[in-house]
Write a structure and sequence with these properties.
Number of domains: 1
Largest sheet: 2 strands, antiparallel
Radius of gyration: 16 Å
Distance between the termini: 20 Å
Structural class: mainly alpha
Number of helices: 3
Strand content: 5-15%
């Protein structure tokens, strides 16, 4: 599997033949959340570079998405 998100969300058991593929909707949702997080990070950097101020609303959105993505990865591997 070349897709690292799909590989990270795939469950394996002790039996070598029992591999559970993740739902494609979950994979797309995680990819979308990561893309939005990167976009918001670029927006925050741009905001700091041009306006020389910190935008707490953008940062809280980044923090929320990061927690969501981390929660998805932690709960899928269990």
């Amino acid at each position: 599997m070349k897709d690292w998100i799909k590989r990270a969300l795939t469950k394996t058991t002790r039996e070598p033949t029992a591999i559970t593929e993740p739902n494609p909707k979950l994979v797309y949702a995680v990819k979308f959340a990561i893309a939005i997080t990167l976009s918001l990070t670029a927006l925050e950097i741009t905001h700091i570079a041009f306006l020389h101020t910190w935008n707490s609303e953008i940062f809280s959105a980044i923090t929320g998405l990061t927690g969501t993505i981390t929660g998805i990865f932690l709960t899928q591997k269990a």
